[in-house]
Amino acid sequence: TQLLEQSPQFLSIQEGENLTVYCNSSSVFSSLQWYRQEPGEGPVLLVTVVTGGEVKKLKRLTFQFGDARKDSSLHITAAQPGDTGLYLCAGVRTGNQFYFGTGTSLTVIP
Amino acid sequence: GAGVSQSPSNKVTEKGKDVELRCDPISGHTALYWYRQSLGQGLEFLIYFQGNSAPDKSGLPSDRFSAERTGESVSTLTIQRTQQEDSAVYLCASGAGAFQPQHFGDGTRLSIL
Questions:
Q1: Is the pLDDT of residue A1 over 70?
Q2: Which residue among A18, A25, B44, B52 is least enclosed by CB atoms within 10 Å?
Q3: Count of CB atoms within 10 A of residue A46's CB?
């Protein structure tokens, strides 16, 4: 059983469409991070959210941390082919334990 | 470069052989993590080092897996008597300290024949 469940697992959309990826848990996290991974490379950090209800924007990407700090979402506006990759959320609990989500594989079709 | 470096990038070996994977973290990073990733899947936590000690070994899948870190720098992950189910990408990450974001290497792709 995964501590962090991501949905959807796979997503294929046309360029210009909007999408949302969800990261859900029944546990509380002190902070949550989002990473993007491209084939043959390691994950790269996109953002860290630490406060319940926090919203962060990174160009066309909007990240939200749930009020109860149990879930998060990533919204991409006007997706581009360069957004293609595996998106991973990771929650931090006490003791410096990182729990990675199950991953969402996004394909943006030109 | 200044990033996390892993070697080898690819390793093919026969079932039953031992393999050693190396990770050079970013200089000064005290936290070091090992993960395993199957094709297109999420990350499976293996072990976490803070300095040279490993407070969390809970993710090691069996006693065939071991890891060490020396000089608060280089870490090696050793898999003894490899099995086909050990085939995966092994990723290493380092962090500046507790609760800090992780910087990943590009991984070692391990294939067991």
A1: no
A2: A18
A3: 18
Residue of A nearest to B107 (CA): A42
Q: Which of B41, B2, B11 is nearest to B107 (CA)?
A: B11
CA end-to-end span of chain B: 33
Question: In this complex, is the C-beta atom of A43 within 8 Å of any C-beta atom belonging to chain B?
Answer: yes
At residue B73 the predicted structure's pLDDT band, cuts being 50, 70 and 90, is very high
Measured from the Cβ of residue B23, the count of other Cβ atoms closer than 10 Å reads 27
Q: How confident is the model over A61-72, as pLDDT tens digits? A: 999 999 999 999
Sole residue written with tokens 């990033």: B3
pLDDT in tens, B8-64: 999 999 999 999 999 999 999 999 999 999 876 788 889 989 888 887 778 899 999
Using alpha carbons, list the distances in angstroms from residue A17 to A25, B95, B101: 27, 35, 30
Q: How close does chain B come to A10, measured CA to CA in Å? A: 10
Compare all CA atoms of chain A with the CA of B4 and give the residue at the minimum distance: A42
Q: Residue B18 region, left (φ>0) first, then alpha (ψ -120 to 50), else beta?
A: beta
Whether residue B1 has pLDDT greater than 60: no
CA atoms within 13 A on the CB side of B59: 21
Contact B106 A41 (CB under 8 A): yes
Among residues 63-92 of chain B, which lie with CB inside 8 Å of chain A?
Answer: 91
Give the separation between CA A46 and CA A65, rounded to whole angstroms: 14
